[in-house]
Fold this sequence. Notes:
Blueprint: H1 7-13, E1 35-40, E2 43-47, E3 52-58, E4 61-65, H2 73-86, E5 92-96, H3 102-105, E6 116-120, H4 121-130, E7 140-142, E8 145-150, E9 153-158, E10 170-173, E11 178-180, H5 193-197, H6 201-213, E12 218-220, H7 230-253, H8 257-263, H9 267-290, H10 297-314
Parallel strand pairs: 4-5, 5-6, 6-7, 11-12
Antiparallel strand pairs: 1-2, 2-3, 3-4, 8-9, 9-10, 10-11
The chain binds zinc ion.
Amino acid sequence: MTSPASGTDTAAALPDYAPVPQSALGPALNDQGYYVGRVERNLYWVTDGSYQSAFLTTKDGVVLFDAPPSIGGNIRRAVDEIASANGVSNKVTHLVYSHSHADHAGASSLFDKNVIRIGHEETKRLLLRDNDPARPAPEETFADRRTLKIGGERIELEWRGPNHSPDNIYIHFPDHDALMLIDIVNPGWAPISIANLSEDIPGYVASPAIALDYPWKHFIGGHVTRLGTRDDVTLHQQYMADIDASVRKALMSVDPTPFFQKYGNNPWAAVSALFDAWTEAGATPVIEKYTGVLAAADVYTRSTVFWVMESIRLDLGFASYVHP
Ligand SMILES: [Zn+2]
């Protein structure tokens, strides 16, 4: 007899979701659990199927962009594999942080103390505050923009305000037709919980248009299984615009009165049920439209709808009620 807590029973009780569309899937991983591929010329990307980082091989060594701990030691293996195949140096000389979060920077300490770390000044402030030995603070920082010229290669770093995080930057490779922008657009997939765990929704919603202002063909989004295209970014914008419109409609059409009538002196019970009702009304048409279009639209749209709804109410003041 198996106990109710057995793995099989737990798995059987979990919900089923729509199949992942073929368009959301990227290349297969190797036996060590990673894939490394060329973005363009000497710019490469590495993935474990969930996270992505990138690196540039130069005549003076390798410049790494993010070090997600889930890829961890495979970053080193991927760099070694490419460097030896091309007869170039595998010495990592620089590490650029897209932002401070541990899930994209937590393998930073695997690289030696002589690596020069570069990041936004807010990234430095946050890393010093959070004091995680896995993520040494950057020695070199910038405020608004900075052009890196390393080993004959050009990289443009720019901060355009808070979005997913306060410090998230645009990493443009003008000579490689590529843009790296982490935790905004997951090519082929819906954002995860609360719009990719974003702290500033107006900034998050505005950032794809900023991304599209740069000239590029290849998009490195930091997540899931493949690189992105300009069409992926446009599709994500459409998804977020549909969420916005649907949320506004839900806020206007679901009447709060019965929720407060029902729960009397427990206003939090009323608010909780009302938030759920607004979220459900906002999410339903979006899930219907994007299932089969963006992977996991049925898994995560409710969560993002909830967070966009709170931003529309609290940041934008939409449907705000002033007692007469
Ligand atoms: Zn993040």
